[in-house]
C-alpha cells in the first residue's frame, strides 16, 4: 500500500502501524517485515485466516491530505481473494468514509455489459451475452466454473466459444499468471519457475517409488512423457504430471479394483487421494500440487489398457521396465519405448504441439473395465 500527497509524491509510511483481524500461520514474517507498505509489492504483504469478514487497518502516525491510495494486490491465481475489497478512510472529523467497494463497481460494470447488448442485432445477442458473462467471471476471478459455464451457453457456436477463450486468455488471464487450457483456468507450467518444476518432478518421482511397493510396473505417462521427450520442459499449457501404473488381470479385473489398491496403499502413507474419476485419481502429499495416477489393466499377459488411450495396443515390453530420462537434471522413469508409446497415445504427429488437443474419453471402448 502507498499514499500520494497533493503533489503526487509518495508518502513515507515507515512509521505506519498495521493491524489485521487475524494472521494466517506462516505469513507472520511477511507481516512483521512490513511488506504491505512496500511500493509495487506483488506477492503477499499480509494474509488473514478464513475470517467471515477479514479486515486490515493501517494507522498513520500523522494525519495529512492525500489525493490517492494505492493498494497492490498479490499476483497469480489467488489475487481474486481480495476482489471483494472495501476501503474506508477516516476523515479529519473522525468519521469513516467508504471510498472503494469492489462489489459495487462490479455491479456497475455488469450493468454496462448488459446494456451493451441492445446495440447489437438480435441474432448476435446469445454470443454477446455469453461473452459478457465470461468476461465478468474472468475479471472477478471466478475461474472455477468458467469452462463449464461457457460450454453450457446455448446458441453459441463452437468457433465463437474458442474465440472467446482466446480473447479472455490474451486480454485478462495471462497477465494474472493463469491460463484457460483444456483443464479450465489454471496456473499452467509457463508461469512456473525452474525451481518449482524441479521440486514437482522430485515429488512425482517419490510417488512412483512409493507405488512400486504394489507393482514394479509404474512410471510417468501421457503428457509427462511428451514433456521429457518432445519439449525438454514441462509443457507450457499443461498444469500437472501423470503417472501410469499397471496390474495383471488376475489381480485387477477392472479399473475400480486398481484404484482401490492405489488409494488404500497411498492413503496409508499420508497421501491425499481425491477424485471420483473412472480410471485415475489426483494424488498429493501435504498440500503439494497433485499428480494424476492412471490405473491400467493387462488384458492378457502382454497387452495393457489405460483410459483414456487406445485399447490393448501397447505391449508390456513397450512400457516396462521403464527407462530413466533426465529433465532439469532430475532422472525420471518413462516408458521403455517412449516414441512408440507417444505414437499410440497421441498419433503419428505427436511431435507437433497442439495446445487444444484433448483425449476423446469414449467410455464405450472400455465399458467392461469400468
Structure, described:
- The chain has 370 residues and is of the alpha+beta class.
- It folds into two domains: 104-186; 192-369, Beta Polymerase, domain 2 (2-Layer Sandwich).
- The chain is 30% helix and 21% strand.
- The chain has ten helices and 17 strands.
- It has helices at residues 28-32, 102-116, 125-140, 146-151, 158-173, 194-211, 223-231, 255-267, 316-319, 338-346, and strands at 2-5, 17-20, 56-59, 66-70, 86-90, 96-101, 179-181, 184-186, 218-220, 242-247, 271-274, 280-285, 291-298, 303-305, 314-315, 323-327, 330-334.
- Strands 9, 10, 11, 12, 13, 14 and 15 form a seven-stranded mixed β-sheet that branches. A two-stranded antiparallel sheet has the order 1-4.
- Helix 2 packs antiparallel against helix 3 and helix 3 packs parallel to helix 5.
- The longest helix has 18 residues, at 194-211.
- The N and C termini lie far apart (54 Å).
- The mean pLDDT is 90.
- This is LicD family protein.
- It comes from Hansschlegelia beijingensis.
